[in-house]
Amino acid sequence: MNAERPNGRGAADDVADLARRAGQLAGWAARTGFAIGRKLPGVETAERGVRQVERQLLTELRRRLDEVDDPYHAALTAASAMNRPAVPGKVEAAVTLVPVRDNRAEPLRAAMAELLNHSVGFGRERAREYFYAIILRQLTPDEARILSALSDGSPFPAVDVVERTGLGGNGRVVLRNASTVGKAAGVSLPDQVPGYVTRLIGLGLVDLDEEVPSLETQYEILLTDETVREAEKHVRRAKFVRRTIHVSRLGAQFWQACDPSLG
To answer: Which domain of life is it from (predicted)?
Structure first.
């Protein structure tokens, strides 16, 4: 699926180049604390330009990743090719699909066959590269910024807002994984930070741990966050469950492989 271009470059090369450019931009913004200086003359306009370029690069990167080594995309493309009428004089590439019924291709079965074929032909490094590419494809720009902020191993406070029961226990959770890491990372959508953190935990890139007393000041700041305050309004008696977040072992390995400053 890594077709060669006339200049000798393949689709995978283009993906790597785009990933490097997008990563360099996001990494530069995170390292320089670009979002912190918004009050400086001209910085707001410059920041909008950086965000726009970042979005364009990541959008194109995601499109390329969707087309390279994606078994479902390969299966759909093959199914479409099978159902198109033949063009006289045009030679189509041979594609092997899972057996079909009623002359209609089954892309889900073909996609699974693609994955199984990959599992035979991939070595350790290629399998790891494929795995990281799948993770990278799922990240939003804001989530990449958060991962960058966590990449040095520093813990950040996180709180759940829950409803306190009559016996002093925990009831329903109205907000999960609010954290100060979003502001530290300079995300575009601060109100979405709980969702970002929850997704990063779900991807295995971030670990949730116990409260760290040395972060008391940051916990107090977090409790004044607008998102936390809004969630507090939806319960009769609020209880704040304190935790911390930090990069996981997988997250550290993933960042090591993708860190634009090391490229």
So the answer is: Bacteria
User: What b/e string do you get for 206-224 counting C-beta neighbours within 10 Å, with b at 16 or more?
Assistant: bbbeebbeebeebbeebbe
DSSP 76-121: HHHHHHHHSPPPTT-PPPP------BTTB--HHHHHHHHHHHHHHH
Residue type, 176: R
Other beta carbons less than 10 A from residue 117's beta carbon = 12
> What is the tens place of the pLDDT at every residue in 192-233?
999 999 999 999 999 999 999 999 999 999 999 999 999 999
Write the CA distances from 179 to 22, 189, 207, integer angstroms.
25, 13, 13
For the stretch 155-181, pLDDT in tens is 999 999 999 876 766 778 999 999 999
- C-alpha closest to that of 27 among 48, 11, 50, 44: 50
| Residue appearing with tokens 């030679």 | 91
Q: Are 68 and 12 in contact (CB under 8 A)?
A: yes
3-state secondary structure at position 4: strand
DSSP string, 47-87: HHHHHHHHHHHHHHHHHHHHHSS-HHHHHHHHHHHHHSPPP
Residue at 171: amino acid letter? G
Q: How far apart are CA 180 and CA 184, in angstroms?
A: 7
Residues 6+ apart with CB under 8 A from 203: 135, 138
Residue 156's SS3 state is strand
Q: How far, in Å, CA of 263 to CA of 257, rounded?
A: 9
Separation between Cα atoms, residue 79 and residue 67, nearest integer Å: 15
pTM above 0.70, yes or no: no
